[in-house]
Specification:
23 helices
Length: 526
């Protein structure tokens, strides 16, 4: 028995710490959304490896390749903004299905023609990732849905695995794509162009698979479908007396009234869906995300592949394997992001992992040997995306639930719009044999973003509604010992923001307090 306990307790701790227990019990819809992202990022990774090489094989200049990436990202800004703003009204599942159809459209066009302008039109109107990273309306809708499906205390674990599976998908796509291209190139009668086009056919097929997964999602994914559970507090004596919802009926009524009056206006103006307090937070975040995305736009993944191929003249299978390893290492690093955030807070996790990766990026052009370059790539990959899950959890926590889809859509649009102008600059630099400048500038800008994030948001407190959501499963009245619910909530949030332990609220039915609320408050120290 002692041996069994000595094994089971560490195993339980590991499962709890890495979020395995959370993700296992997250529900069918959560699993489908994460699997759908895995397939999507598999497709994005495979295309990112060959996109710039495909254009180079078609004798398209470096400047026009950079222009293509810029215009593709600009087109995505418009499409993503439109779809994310109407997603909650059109239906999240329908919007995801439409995005999958756009993936299929782009893949088929790229597989059938080599005309630069037709390809550009297909990339703008459809969905294709020139950088290997997220593009299209998917992520904002999926993250908003996940935040709705999962209670606040478990979001960091779910978002961490959402990012991990995405990185694994990109890694698998790069590996499979590299070996597929080399295999097809070795076949008699196959040209490089034919080999690359086979990848685009695979991309279209993955779009079809993702559409099929979307049909399996339930109605619980739609906006407003989440069951409203309200904590009722005793406000007068032991006999019950007057009770009221934790959020206050007046505020809930005002919110519902405003939503009804602004339903049409919010379709055209995304900020109409967002409260004044959230707007100021959003504006500051967008300013910082703009700096980070400008840097990312200078060195998108497809251009890093292009840089490695040009500098070291690698076989495509070897190039694909190297890039696959970097993404695999990235996924392993993401597993620990949630655990770190629970201890030091969301913002500190974002900064302390992302800042070293920015330094590695700036140093990337210096080594002349392939081994040292790979070391820098792997070091950057290990830390670069560890900020994604904390960032998603942070955005979910600092805005109201009904604002999440709009806020995440606006953030993604700002990031994509910021990225769009820089590939042209990198293309010009590459055409003049100054490719290395892009890496140095990008790394410096990312470091500035990290410092700004730490300066402005290290002491940010969560919205009060996050505390409510962490207790939504408890419907019995709560004993407050005469203390005002509002004061109690304010004290709890202030104490948790400072990283202090908070005693669990006593429940009159003597129901056990959930383990997730004890000892490890939900990312309390922002």
């Amino acid at each position: 028995m002692a041996i069994k306990d000595s094994i089971s307790r560490p195993a339980y701790w590991v499962a709890q710490e890495l979020g395995l227990k959370t993700i296992a019990g997250a529900g069918k819809d959560t699993h489908i959304l994460i699997l759908g992202r895995f397939l999507r990022m598999f497709a994005y990774g495979s295309v990112a490896l060959v996109l710039a090489l495909y254009f180079a094989t078609l004798k398209i200049s470096d400047e026009r390749i950079g222009l293509f990436i810029t215009l593709t990202l600009l087109g995505d800004v418009f499409i993503s903004l439109l779809l994310t703003l109407v997603a909650d009204k059109l239906g999240r599942r329908r919007t995801l299905l439409l995005g999958s159809a756009m993936m299929v459209f782009s893949g088929v066009v790229f597989a059938l023609t080599g005309n630069y302008y037709i390809l550009l039109l297909a990339a703008i109107v459809g969905v294709i990732s020139p950088s290997g990273s997220e593009i299209g309306p998917f992520r904002a809708i999926e993250e908003s849905t996940l935040a709705q499906l999962v209670e606040a205390t478990k979001r960091s674990d779910v978002f961490a695995w959402y990012v991990v599976l995405a990185a694994l998908g990109t890694s698998a796509g790069l590996l499979v794509c590299g070996w597929m291209v080399e295999y097809y190139q070795s076949l008699e009668g196959w040209t490089d162009v034919d080999a690359y086009r086979a990848i685009f056919w695979m991309y279209a097929g993955l779009g079809v698979a993702k559409a099929c997964l979307t049909f399996l999602l339930s109605r619980e994914c739609e906006a407003g479908r989440k069951r409203e559970l309200v904590l009722v507090t005793e406000s007068e004596g032991e006999d019950g007396g007057e009770t009221e919802p934790l959020l206050g009926a007046r505020e809930m009524h005002a919110t519902n009234t405003d939503n009804g009056k602004q339903s049409k206006k919010s379709c055209l103006n995304p900020f109409a869906q967002i409260s004044t307090k959230s707007r100021w937070i959003l504006l500051r975040l967008c300013a910082l995300f703009c700096i980070d995305s400008l840097a990312s736009g200078m060195v998108p993944f497809s251009l890093i592949n292009f840089y490695m191929d040009r500098k070291f003249h690698l076989p495509k299978s070897k190039l694909g394997s190297i890039m696959s390893v970097t993404w695999l290492v990235s996924s392993l690093g993401n597993i620990f992001a949630s655990s770190i955030a629970k201890r030091i807070g969301l913002i500190k996790t974002m900064v302390f992992t992302h800042l070293p990766s920015a330094i590695f990026l700036a140093l990337l052009p210096i080594p002349t040997s392939l081994v040292l370059t790979i070391c820098l790539l792997v070091g950057r990959a290990c830390l670069n995306s560890m900020d994604q899950a904390p960032r998603s959890a942070f955005l979910s926590a600092v805005v109201l639930a009904e604002e999440r889809t709009a806020v995440m859509g606006i953030v993604n649009v700002v990031k994509t719009l910021s990225q769009s102008g820089c590939p042209v600059i990198t293309g010009i630099l590459a055409g003049r044999d100054r490719f290395w400048i892009a890496f140095v500038v990008a790394g410096s800008m990312k470091a500035a973003y990290d410092i700004g994030l730490l300066t402005f948001f290290v002491n940010t407190k969560l919205h009060g509604h996050e505390q409510e959501e962490s207790n939504l499963r408890t419907t019995e009245p709560v004993e407050t010992d005469g203390e005002s619910p509002d004061n109690r909530d304010g004290d709890v949030m202030e104490a948790r923001a400072e990283g202090q332990e908070v005693a669990p609220t006593t429940v009159s039915s003597r129901r056990a307090t959930p383990r997730s609320l004890l000892g490890r408050p939900y990312l309390a120290a922002i």
